[in-house]
Amino acid sequence: MMRELVTVVPEQSKRRDELKEFILKHPYLRFVSLVGIDLLGNDTDERIPIEHFLKNLEDIFAGGVQTDGSSVNLPGIAELNDAKVDFIIDFERRWVVDYNHELVDDNGLPTGTIRIPVFFRHHDRFYCSRSVLHDTLEHVRRELRPLLAADTQFLAAHGIGDSDIADVYFTLGTELEFWVSSPAKNVSQHELRVTQALKESYWKRTRGDIRTCLEDALIQLQRYGLEPEMGHKEVGGVHGKISEQGRLHDVMEQLEVDWRFSDPVQAADNDILARFIIKDVFMRHGLSVTFVAKPVEGIAGSGKHMHVGMGLLLRDGRRVNLFDPNDPDLHLSNFGFGAIMGLLRHWEVINPFVSHSNSALRRLQPGFEAPVSIVTSLGTDPRSPSRNRTVLAGLVRGDGPLSIRFEVRAPNPHTNSYLACAAFYLAMLDGIRHAAGRTPAALLAELSKNPGEPAAFLATDRAYLSEEDIFEHYTEAERTARFGKSPDTVWEIMTHLEEMPDLYRGTPMSEAVVRSFHISALNKWRIDSCAKEFGTIRRELGELRRLQAGENALDEKRWSEFERLRAELLRDDEDFDCEMTRLVSLFDSRRYAEASDGLVAFRRRVAAAREAYRVYAGNLL
């Protein structure tokens, strides 16, 4: 029966009369939801009864549905005194059907909701993540055309002329990692660390409910047209235990699912859809899924590697990859070198749209295959790509020239793919402007520079290319000297948007959008720190108890040291505010620079308290 359920509204059914006919043909479609994406990547979701939708179809198609824009993340744009935001339907992207399997009709069919993507319009201008990406792609397309026309070197290498080019296309592919657990899990961090160190999980065989859910999720992704390419176990996790009833319990495993690339706006829509599908499938089997970047401290976090590409559609139907040099002795075309150089040069103003949460930064630590430095890898030889997993963005090659792309490894599952991708392409465009008319050899020489060597485009004090294991080959001091200092807090990342970056001037990433995002991200950081991180630390340290049996004098001394640290961190008295209280006060008064410095010191002290308790407890028999 599930095979008979429609998952996508056909293109020909998006017109008024045809849509009515389509809906009436499928009576289990009971609701419509208009889905817009705010600047933090949150999607709107509501239920419009199908009868009301059909009755008011013309008004809704004309933008007749409105929301209170002050309740979504558009600060500085839609405020309490000017909150009207219109939903403008996107007819170009796919309309999918979301099913509630908990609510079935008399025929046993689940209740279906048509999810229609929309853009947010405020005072006749569009302000939302989807519109920023959509308009950015059009902007980059327009800016590229004269560069292509003037670059006879690239055109000649591919045996084409400017008149052969019909269009510029863009691609975005996604690798999504996530953690799965049973509700009542009893898995220690020690177990997780051991299995990770021994590589007991990566690409190993799944079993039980995990296998069933993974396979079901891939089948559902296929039904929705996402064309899944693979699902497998990731580096984190332990095998669940089997109960007397033959069921798995104490499940905690990390998985990855990949699906086929698409145009970037559709790919970002697919990202959200895939998360819904995966969560729903696992939930139906009593398992919980989290897409948090770093759900377990000290264990591998979850990434969302984004594969970005660009190409030309020719009038005869052929495609040419803009990064392809059409020469086996070259890594990239001049435009390919320009694209990666633009990403690296501008990463500090891209990163706010990629990593703006405490969890995202906790993931980006050495030793967990997550990037910590602004560096790329091309492979030691153009014929032997290396797929270096320690760099920020690496060159990826498949079987043919159309597969050449860059894998950006910093994003996490909660990265707003729309804004991040828009920033990627604007940075690549700037690099391509520099590369136009230059040879691949000259650009490779600039990309290969050492710190202190001046360059026409890249920063003098940085290196940008390495084929080494970034974590093992360089010390922290060497990484900082070559590639720049890694940020410690969200504030350090967001300072790069304090002033409007030149990269975004005159683009759809307007000053209003950047300012609104900046406000939203800092508000989220403040709440995340004070409510989530501090609350978790208070519970964790507060629950640690003295283990008096078998104590000796050394144990008493160690316990006293832990108690002193815990009190200084968490306990106020009449004449003393603890470190947490002082930090909360800094956040509440929006003294973010001081809060950032204090947070770094606070986390070091929390780590010292954890270690003090570990040493104390580890000596007791």
Description:
The protein is α+β, with helices and mostly antiparallel strands and 621 residues long. The chain folds into 3 domains: 2-125, Roll (Ubiquitin-like (UB roll)), CATH 3.10.20.70; 133-509, Glutamine synthetase/guanido kinase, catalytic domain (Creatine Kinase, Chain A, domain 2, 2-Layer Sandwich); 522-618. Helices cover 40% and strands 18% of the residues. It has 20 helices and 18 strands. The strands form 3 sheets. Strands 8, 9, 12, 13, 14, 15, 16, 17 and 18 form a 9-stranded mixed sheet that branches. Strands 1, 2, 3, 4, 5, 6 and 7 form a 7-stranded mixed sheet that branches. A hairpin with a 5-residue loop joins β10 and β11 (248-249). It is globular, with a radius of gyration of 26 Å. The N and C termini lie far apart (60 Å).
In short:
The protein is α+β, with helices and mostly antiparallel strands and 621 residues long.
Comma- or semicolon-separated keywords:
9-stranded mixed sheet; globular; 7-stranded mixed sheet; 20 helices; 621 residues; alpha+beta; Ubiquitin-like (UB roll); Creatine Kinase, Chain A, domain 2; 3 domains
- The portion of residues assigned to helices is 25-40%
- Strand tally is 18
CATH topology of the largest domain: Creatine Kinase, Chain A, domain 2
The level-1 CATH class of the largest domain: Alpha Beta
Return the domain count: 3
| Measured distance between first and last alpha carbons | 60 Å
Largest sheet descriptor: 9 strands, mixed
Number of helices: 20
Helix and strand composition category: alpha+beta
